[in-house]
Design brief:
The chain is globular and about 45 Å long. With 330 residues, it is α/β, with parallel strands linked by helices. It has helices at residues 3-17, 79-91, 119-143, 157-169, 173-178, 191-196, 310-328; strands at residues 46-48, 58-62, 101-105, 150-155, 179-185, 211-213, 217-218, 256-260, 263-268, 274-277, 280-283.
Length: 330
């Protein structure tokens, strides 16, 4: 398959899914689900539960915006949302495959339309998902975790919810003892967060643990076009795992990965460089024609935050797990 045909195929697949990164359909504010939160004792309310425990570390995954329905907030069993969420397990959360047991709750997801709303309305609509994430994690910790270290990970709305979750919970002893790291990719953490929440520690080295990873991929000059880049946003460069502004060349990129509906289809080493600049992660893709999904406009590569650095993420996850286990053994 040629790169051009692959790009067209991937674009059509994502369009048919109505899923990854596509803005939700406009709907009146009253079109909001009023059902109760999910019962996480029921396996049907989990996107992923391991059939058996194969690893010494877990990952708690919260999927990005995939809901494209008429309601402002999806029901937890919405078929379109569930289909899109499954796609993110293959295309994003698969970086944890072979390294951690994957636990991923379904949750009442807000339409991407909420990004254009007032903060009060954002809190209202996203609050349902936050309540679900909190309930799911509490159930996971009590019934599934069995004392293992864990990673928090998400993208986009999932990272937004996990960041809010972290504000409420990260100072609890279990996170200080057991959290390997939190990959809050596709959302922002700001100096104000660090000031208000002393438990927030930004990852500034590849083997640091108990810390937070955050970045948003954009072309040069597109930082202000990305609604996920908040004023003062801190960015961790996934090619160096530092927050400095040094340009890291594409030679350090172990491989970008692009997916069709059945799994990883194409891996391209040295696909892009990366540089932290003005709150964003500035990238220079080798072949921008592959990056067809840009709901926030040209040059905002939000949909590809995991794809662009897929192999580096896999390697770093292994590195942080090893570092955590080494420190725990002392």
């Amino acid at each position: 398959m040629t790169l051009r045909k692959f790009a067209a195929a991937m674009g059509m697949i994502l369009f048919l899914l109505g899923a990854v990164c596509l803005p939700g359909a406009q709907a009146p504010a009253w079109a909001m689900v009023q059902d109760q939160g999910p019962d996480y004792s029921q396996a049907a309310n989990w996107l992923s539960l391991p059939k058996s425990i194969e690893h010494k570390v877990d990952v708690f995954w919260v999927y990005p915006t995939v809901y494209d329905g008429k309601q402002m907030v999806a029901k937890v069993n919405d078929a379109q949302m569930t289909q899109g969420a499954r796609y993110t397990v293959r295309s994003q959360a698969s970086v944890f495959q072979g390294q951690a047991n994957l636990f991923a709750p379904l949750y009442r997801q807000a339409s991407a339309k909420v990004l254009t709303m007032s903060q009060a309305d954002k809190d209202r609509y996203l609050g349902m998902g936050l309540s679900d994430v909190q309930a799911a994690f509490a159930y996971y910790l009590k019934h599934y975790n069995q004392g293992r270290p864990f990673i928090l990970a998400g993208h986009s709305q999932g990272s937004n919810l996990l960041t809010d979750f972290a504000r409420k919970n990260l100072d609890q002893p279990v996170f200080k003892r057991k959290m390997v790291a939190a990959y809050l990719i596709g959302w922002s953490i700001t100096p104000d967060d660090l000031k208000k929440h002393p438990a927030f520690k930004i990852c500034r080295a590849a083997a640091q643990t108990g810390c937070l990873i955050t970045y948003n991929s954009v072309a040069a000059g597109k930082q202000k076009k990305a609604p996920t880049i908040l004023p003062g946003a801190i960015s961790v460069n996934p090619l160096s795992w530092t927050t400095d502004g040094k340009l890291v060349p594409a030679s350090q990129n172990m491989g970008a990965a692009f997916f069709e509906d059945q799994g990883k289809d194409l891996t391209i080493p040295h696909f892009t460089s990366a540089q932290n600049k003005d709150g964003g992660l500035v990238v220079q893709p080798k072949d921008a024609k592959l990056l067809t999904q840009m709901p926030f406009g040209p040059g905002v590569y939000h949909c590809y935050d995991y794809s662009l650095f897929y192999e580096n993420l896999k390697a770093n996850i292994a590195q942080r797990i090893k570092a955590f286990q080494g420190r725990a053994a002392k």
